[in-house]
């Protein structure tokens, strides 16, 4: 695989760890409308988007799924694969044709268990993605429900 193509997404990893992780990458593509995974399903893989966009959504009883975030070029799809019980917390749908690198979660988890330094790097990388998404979700919730949006209260 061409590691420089993912340098933006994986820039938090040392080059050696980035190259080792990319050995597990497989190029895949999804047509628009493809459902990548369902909330509550087994998180057995993850992706880095090369082209296209994917909506992350959450089931809302009695309503259409609520879109939580739209992911694009060089973004990680899925972090639930790293944390037990390895089930998806959200769903995901390709909103345009998508090309991505796909990784087998079991193989990557096995590799990072065998190499604590690599495991720490991957955990920090994925943790950074999760933290960013939590901040984004907080801002969206404030925009939706706070009396004055996410702006400062002066």
UniProtKB/TrEMBL annotation:
Record's GO cellular component terms: cytosol
Pfam families, A to Z: cNMP_binding (PF00027)
Superkingdom field: Bacteria
GO MF annotation, one: DNA-binding transcription factor activity
Domain Cyclic nucleotide-binding per the UniProt entry, residue ranges: 9-112
Coiled-coil ranges per UniProt: none
PANTHER family, per database record: CRP FAMILY TRANSCRIPTIONAL REGULATORY PROTEIN, HTH-TYPE TRANSCRIPTIONAL REGULATOR ARCR
Protein name per the record: Cyclic nucleotide-binding domain-containing protein
């Amino acid at each position: 695989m061409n590691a420089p193509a993912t340098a933006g997404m994986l820039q938090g990893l040392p080059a050696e760890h980035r190259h080792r992780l990319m050995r597990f990458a497989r190029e895949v593509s999804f047509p628009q409308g493809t459902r990548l995974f369902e909330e509550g399903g087994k998180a057995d893989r993850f992706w880095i988007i090369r082209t296209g966009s994917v909506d992350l959504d959450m089931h809302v009883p009695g309503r259409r799924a609520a879109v939580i975030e739209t992911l694009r070029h060089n973004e990680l799809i899925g972090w639930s694969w790293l944390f037990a019980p390895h089930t998806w917390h959200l769903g995901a749908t390709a909103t345009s044709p998508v090309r991505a690198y796909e990784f087998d979660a079991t193989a990557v988890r096995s590799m990072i268990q065998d190499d604590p330094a690599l495991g720490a790097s991957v955990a920090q990388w994925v943790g950074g993605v999760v933290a960013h998404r939590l901040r984004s979700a907080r801002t969206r919730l404030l925009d939706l429900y706070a009396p004055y949006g996410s702006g400062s209260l002066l």
